Amino acid sequence: MNYTTQMNAAKKGIITPEMKIVAAKEKMNIEELKTLIAQGKVVIPANKYHTCINVNGIGSMLKTKINVNLGTSRDWKDLDMELKKANDAVNMGVESIMDLSSYGDTQKFRRKLTKECPAIIGTVPIYDAVVYYHKPLKEITARQWIDIVEMHARDGVDFMTIHVGINKNTAQRFKENKRLTNIVSRGGSIIFAWMEMTGQENPFYEYYDEILDICQKYDVTMSLGDACRPGSIEDAGDISQIEELVTLGELTKRAWQKDVQVIVEGPGHMALNQIEANIKIQQTICQGAPFYVLGPLVTDIAPGYDHITAAIGGALAAANGAAFLCYVTPAEHLRLPDLNDVKEGIIASKIAAHAADIAKGIKGAKDLDYQMSCARKNLDWEKMFELAIDPKKARTYRQQAKPEKEDTCSMCGNFCAIKNMNRILNGEIVNIYDE
Q1: Beta strands per DSSP E along 146-287
Q2: Mind listing the GO molecular function terms for this protein (predicted)?
């Protein structure tokens, strides 16, 4: 290849095989796509060593993509279960999977994903360093943090969350401006604690150029982690969040200078009325780099239902320009999600993403909705099930309360407005009560 990354190819005017695939999926002119990649407004995360990948593009002018978090923890060590979650997510059409494993043989699991899983694979090297080195946090050296980044790149990871925006300056600003919920990012809290204990600069910030060289070598997309994302609506939009975002904007430019693709991560918990402004600020500061959001969760009081609070915020965020939604499950804030939690989280995120794509006017976004409306007008139940985001659940609901007459449902029966309008417009008599 006479290019290093997808961005480098685009800047040189080269159309890569991955660009052709994405252009076809998005029904987009390939020259337009190439320009957006060269500008950093679209990324195609595709590590050169992840050869089984089903390529997808991420950008606000493309269909909104969904990421699923999974991985082992000290209290939940079942790798087979995590692989089942990954397979289920792929079968449900999710574009990306992040391995957040924090216990066990993390490299074995990661390599299995990049060898067998067609989804975009992301990781957080900060977590893995703590597991890999098996020693107290304070004793991990700056060099060892960077070595883990290269290990993940060699293992075929397509994008990495690097908590580089929380340097000594942003950390000091955080300490001077107290928050209700402090730092809720796991990676952010780890690197903040390391800086406090060692007195050293964040190694990901200090050696950022070396990390960019690694990303360029393997074509790993940099996901700039938001260590200071708000963990409550009380902290949303505060000085710490905005201070870090400004730093991430500067780091985005530096990555682009080396032709490294960039995603910028965002909140977090945030009230509905702040979301649009937050997206617009990010787009300005980071010059249109794709925005990757966790939710946002629009209220703090719904444990057990946070897939809903996240879907509400995610739909609004994506409609205003966020490109990438990290799913949230009903288990958020409570425990590691099980298989059903994963499914519920994916469904909620898919609804949010699809609703946003309709609002943004993405080409073809309304096609399935039009077909569903036609099926409803025609009372074609099998077609409705076929088009549903979750066909099994839709079919089960109907079977659990079968109507007296197959052309209606148990809610309306003979009062069915669609049935009666179809008949009256066809010149038939509508009696309702004595039918």
Answers
A1: 159-162, 221-224, 262-266
A2: 4 iron, 4 sulfur cluster binding; phosphomethylpyrimidine synthase activity; zinc ion binding
Residues ≥6 apart with Cβ < 8 Å to 291: 60, 263, 264, 265, 266, 279, 282, 283, 317, 321, 322, 323, 324
pLDDT computed for residue 435 by the predictor:
62
Cβ neighbours, 10 Å, residue 113: 27
Domain ranges of the chain: 6-360, 365-426
What pLDDT band is residue 404 in, cutting at 50, 70 and 90? confident
Mean pLDDT for the chain overall: 96
Question: What pLDDT digit, counting tens, does each position of 203-247 carry?
Answer: 999 999 999 999 999 999 999 999 999 999 999 999 999 999 999
* Rounded (to 5) percent helix, strand, coil in the chain: 50, 10, 40
Q: What is the spatial distance between Cα 281 and Cα 120, in angstroms, rounded to a whole number?
A: 27
CATH architecture assigned to 6-360? Alpha-Beta Barrel (3.20)
Point out the annotated binding site.
Answer: 69, 98, 127, 163, 185-187, 226-229, 265, 269, 292, 333, 409, 412, 416
> Residues within the annotated binding site for [4Fe-4S] cluster?
409, 412, 416
Binding-site positions for substrate read 69, 98, 127, 163, 185-187, 226-229, 265, 292
d(CA 219, CA 211): 12
Task: Return all residues near 310 (Cβ < 8 A) that are at least 6 apart.
Answer: 294, 295, 296, 297, 327, 328, 332, 348, 349, 352
Can you tell me the distance from the alpha carbon of 185 to that of 342, in angstroms, rounded to the nearest whole number?
21
The amino acid at residue 346 is I
Instruction: Give the Cα separation of 94 and 99 in Å (integer).
Output: 14
pLDDT at 431 over 90: no
Q: Angle between the 168-176 and 186-198 helix axes, to the nearest 10 degrees?
A: 100
Decide: helix, strand or coil at residue 392: helix
Q: Would the pTM count as exceeding 0.90?
A: yes
Residue ranges for the known binding site for Zn(2+) are: 269, 333
Nearest to 161 by CA among 196, 185, 194, 195: 185
At how many degrees (to 10) do helices 168-176 and 239-257 cross?
A: 170
pLDDT digits (tens, 9 = 90+) for 8-58: 999 999 999 999 999 999 999 999 999 999 999 999 999 999 999 999 999
